[in-house]
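To the wet lab folks,

You asked to see what we're planning to order before we commit. Fair enough. Below is the target structure as tokens, and below that is the sequence we designed to fit it. If anything looks off to you, flag it before the synthesis order goes out.
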């Protein structure tokens, strides 16, 4: 595949976080060319941001609706757009580009409500467009290996799923101190009702779903807000029932003092178990019943040839967050060019929104079991 995707971006202006990560990931393998954007609602910042990333002045737009219309009319218009705004803008921006016939790459969560997600799913299907959601940890080579081991039955019957995502950066009320990322992520008008749940809890759920292939059937959730004055949850504990005998537990917290970005997944089957940690992403612990545990390494001995495309350098040369993100962009590009990409699509993203809403409903109803409504 030598085709370069003409690509645009909504959001991701100066001093942001995730926009630059998307740009780095998209250009790591040279498959995307950033040619258009609406980087900020602030006109001066929008233009300055465009200049810094090399977008021509006539391809910088004041709003995403204008961008979608204009790019759809150009013979050299963008093929795809990445939406890297706060959550409340995901739905209107994605809808505008899908209606214009442009493929969409959206940061997670897809929307702030299940109803909006279902509308986008229907629109993407009607338009014949890709709607990908960037759950970047699924691009990690060892996560791909974990999924392969589960699928081929190496664990036996899957019994237990344990996933946690712990941070401590919101252990104080830094949103009141003007911290930009904290300000919008703890604002229900911008982030939606789900705070920690919608920010990192859904990452944890999506990772478990991606590796096991099992969506939850019902949940019992407890959402807590430990920091005084905060308007959204900052700690989430969920019991998961996958409907086939498999049980699970999810813990997500942004007030877990001593944790930086501790995403961990453990799966226990009748024959073997596996464990993976995002802060040590190049190893996977594999233990068969009655045998000493083994550490499997990215691109190491016995690494499957079918997963080689997720590795860039030999074993022992660490790959991490950006490489996993780039793998995801690589799979989206494969999808755009061949229809064969392996990434979280809109159907899976709808399931993620069903998970969020079921957790909110359970918490509102004394933590009672709540089915996922799809």
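Sequence we intend to order:
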């Amino acid at each position: 595949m030598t085709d370069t995707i003409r690509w645009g971006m909504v959001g991701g202006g100066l001093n942001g976080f995730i926009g630059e990560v998307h740009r780095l990931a998209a250009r790591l393998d040279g498959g995307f060319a950033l040619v258009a954007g609406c980087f900020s609602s602030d006109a001066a910042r929008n233009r300055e941001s465009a200049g810094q990333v090399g977008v021509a002045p006539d391809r910088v737009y004041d709003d995403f609706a204008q961008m979608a219309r204009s790019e759809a009319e150009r013979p050299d218009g963008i093929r795809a757009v990445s939406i890297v705004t706060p959550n409340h803008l995901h739905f209107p921006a994605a809808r505008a580009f899908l209606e214009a016939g442009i493929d969409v790459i959206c940061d997670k969560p897809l929307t702030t409500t299940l109803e909006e997600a279902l509308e986008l799913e229907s629109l993407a299907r009607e338009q014949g467009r890709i709607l990908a959601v960037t759950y970047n940890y699924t691009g990690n080579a060892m996560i791909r290996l974990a999924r392969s081991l589960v699928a081929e039955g190496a664990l036996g019957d899957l019994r237990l799923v344990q996933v946690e995502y712990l941070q401590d950066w919101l252990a104080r009320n830094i949103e009141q101190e003007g911290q930009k990322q904290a300000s919008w992520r703890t604002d229900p008008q911008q982030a939606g009702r789900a705070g920690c749940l919608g920010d990192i809890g859904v990452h944890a759920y999506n990772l478990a779903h991606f590796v096991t292939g099992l969506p939850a059937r019902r949940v019992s959730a407890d959402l807590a807000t430990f920091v005084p004055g905060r308007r959204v949850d900052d700690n989430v504990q969920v019991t998961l029932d996958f409907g086939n005998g498999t049980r699970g537990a999810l813990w997500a917290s942004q007030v877990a003092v001593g944790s930086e970005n501790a995403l961990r997944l453990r799966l226990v089957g009748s024959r073997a178990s596996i464990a993976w940690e995002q802060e040590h992403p190049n190893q996977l612990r594999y233990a068969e019943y009655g045998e000493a545990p083994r550490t499997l390494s990215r691109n190491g001995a016995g690494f499957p040839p079918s997963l080689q495309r997720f590795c860039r350098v030999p074993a022992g040369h660490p790959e991490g967050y950006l490489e996993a993100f780039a793998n995801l962009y690589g799979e989206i590009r494969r999808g755009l060019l061949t229809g064969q990409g392996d990434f979280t699509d809109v159907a899976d993203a709808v399931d993620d929104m069903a998970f969020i809403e079921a957790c909110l409903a359970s918490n509102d109803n004394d933590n009672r079991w709540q089915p996922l409504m799809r």
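Structural context that might help your review: The chain has two domains: 5-133, 140-313+345-364. The longest strand covers residues 158-166.

Thanks,
Computational group
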